[in-house]
Amino acid sequence: MTQTIICIKWGTRYGVEYLNRLASMIKRNTKRPTRLVCFTEDSTGADPWVEIAPLPPINIPDRVAWTPWRKLSLWQHPLAGLTGDVLFFDLDVVITGSIDEFFDFEPGRFCVAENWTQPNSGVGNTSLYRFPAGRMRHIFDDFNRDPEKILAQYEIEQQFISAVASDMVFWPSEWAVSFKHSLLPRWPLNFFLTPKLPPGTKLVAFTGKPDPDEAAIGRWPVKGAWKRLYKHVRPTPWITEHWR
For residues 215 and 239, is the Cβ–Cβ distance under 8 A? Predict the structure, then answer.
């Protein structure tokens, strides 16, 4: 059976090189038949291996139309013929190990990385998750019916999903880690030590800044001189090794 992975690319935050690197990492880190479906309004320059689908429709206010709230559009059903367990990756992840186990773990359930900044709070981080297509369509339906009600109650989309999803389970913590919150040495050691990649890690998520290309060369774009006093990352060669 073919494994299905999806992603969504919209706006200008991430260029097509992020999509193509994601496709390349997926192909290198699976031994099974696997497909990648990208939902996007601009597929110019995309790897021909990637299956392109249009951005799914969603009733979303303009002020959040180009934020992660748009990812809720992927919970509608039917959608692009998706069936079975579907694995989602953000574009700014770095795959560092086999991803086949993400399909073997707790089949039929909603699996997600535990949010690294909110441990033991029951909140998942949707940089990486797997869901059974069509089984929790209410996530999309409830938002699509009254987005303002949801936006007034939840700060970000992953809090809403975590609160209303049924049968949620977290991946083993060593499989998916955050570059900034799990691997970056704490201040002031981040000025002297290079972030290390732990054994057993399959995926590194890059939430906010720096992005993978920036962290790889030791660049952390910040606004304000005072932030440069603590926001620093040393060049991290293993990112370049895997993010290609």
Answer: yes
Compute the chain's Rg from CA coordinates: 18
Amino acid, single-letter form, for residue 17: E
Would you say 95 and 34 are in contact if contact means Cβ atoms under 8 Å apart? no
pLDDT of residue 224: 76
The single-letter code of the amino acid at 88 is F
Bond preceding residue 48 cis, omega within 30 of 0? no
Report the DSSP pairing between strands 124-132 and 85-89: antiparallel
Query: Both tokens of residue 212?
Result: 């993978």
What pTM was estimated for this model as a whole? 0.96
| The pair of three-digit structure tokens given for residue 74, joined into one six-digit string | 């992927």
Over 90: is that where the pLDDT of 223 sits? no
Give the pLDDT confidence score for residue 130 in this predicted structure.
98
Contact (Cβ atoms closer than 8 angstroms) between residue 156 and residue 110: no
How far, in Å, CA of 173 to CA of 54, rounded?
33
Average pLDDT over residues 58-77: 97
Biggest CA–CA distance in the chain, Å, is 53
Count of helix runs (H) and strand runs (E) in the chain: 7, 10
